[in-house]
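Memo subject: From amino acid sequence to discrete backbone structure tokens
Action wanted: Derive the backbone structure tokens from the amino acid sequence.
How to read it: Take the token row as a discrete description of the fold.
Attached in line: The record itself begins immediately under this heading.
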Amino acid sequence: MKTSVSDRTESAAAAPAAAAAPAAALAPAAALATARPRMDAARWPDVAHGPRGSATRAAVTRLIVQRALTALPLRVALGDAPVTGTEGPLVRVHAPEAFFRRIGTDGLIGFGESYMAGEWEADDLVGALTVLASHLTSLVPRPLQRLRGAWARRRPSAQRNTLEGARQNIHRHYDLSNDLFALFLDPTLTYSSAVFRKRPAGWSDLAAAQHRKIDRLLDLAGVGGGTRLLEIGTGWGELALRAAARGARVVSVTLSQEQRDLATSRIAQAGHADRVSVELCDYRQVTGHYDAVVSVEMIEAVGVDYWPVYFNTLERLLLPGGRIALQAITMPHARMLATRTTYTWIHKYIFPGGLIPSVEAIEQCTAAAGLRIRENGGYGGHYAETLRLWRERFTQRSADVEALGFDAVFRRMWEFYLAYCEAGFRAGYLDVRQLLLTRADTTAQDGGLR
């Protein structure tokens, strides 16, 4: 898609001499020209130009949004108008006309694009987004919610996770640049929720918290000396490294060339190349049989159409008495059903083709595949903390991100993405769970249960 984030080569080539992240973020509307980031309109056409939506629709949207905001614990300033509200984070809309036109035309996609364009700011972005996420189902009047299908954009067929589509979807996010991810991830290069001993946590706590998460998953899967382990979704190799250190023999599969290259290098440097094979392979094409399968936050990228295929594949690859340990982000079932075909800002700019499942959806798919959930523990608060540390690190290293060739619009996009996700977990709209699956007929005597 013309508005998508492309690979790092394109990012470097297209990056203009971007304005620094606006220090005058909460300046009056008159300062909008200096607050907005300079942007390459050819690369960011929808952000640079915005939709042409009708004035009438924008006016109606303004009435609905303003009415909704007055009921929330937020302070809001529209242009040069006085601040309304007496509590909560301050949201300052520099360009109200553009802001409401975007939302009226493209809903939450427009809301995110308006932030990317510098048309609104918040003195506490996560706090403001948490308030909105906590009241998500009540922001739009119920009669209008029933008309959702008439205005919500449907996900493009090009983002379906066919064998080719999945490769393209993964490439758009995970192949951006290993150097980019290294700027805000801890030294383990682990891009999923950590498990902390205590919260709030500091940056120095993150690596140990990521190892704690990985070790819990390996324990759940019963990984030890001689285990034949399949990892679906390599990341940058830390789980495979820790499994190999336990004496397991690991096959890890990924669709990201960038991740495979760095993971392979890290594994060789650690002296585990004889125990770990990292393959550029779709999970549907894996062969063989394994004592254990581990997959960390990969199901979110599978897509609703392929959830049955995913769980049938897990069952096919598992040896008798084997164990599957999954870490999955989840959302409430009703919200999943309501949004499963909707095209969102996250799909357009961050994770094309994905969908966060509900626990109920996972239960239905596992049962249909002949699997059973044996353990199910959630810890969404830990993900909020993980995201906070990533977001703070990303913001602190904004100049380093720019030096890699990522322009100001990209940096605002990723700040919004990290804050948006953190808010979802802080509001309880999202959760993250570790699940143990076995075949439905597995018993303790088979070694499938502890």
Observations:
- The radius of gyration is 22 Å.
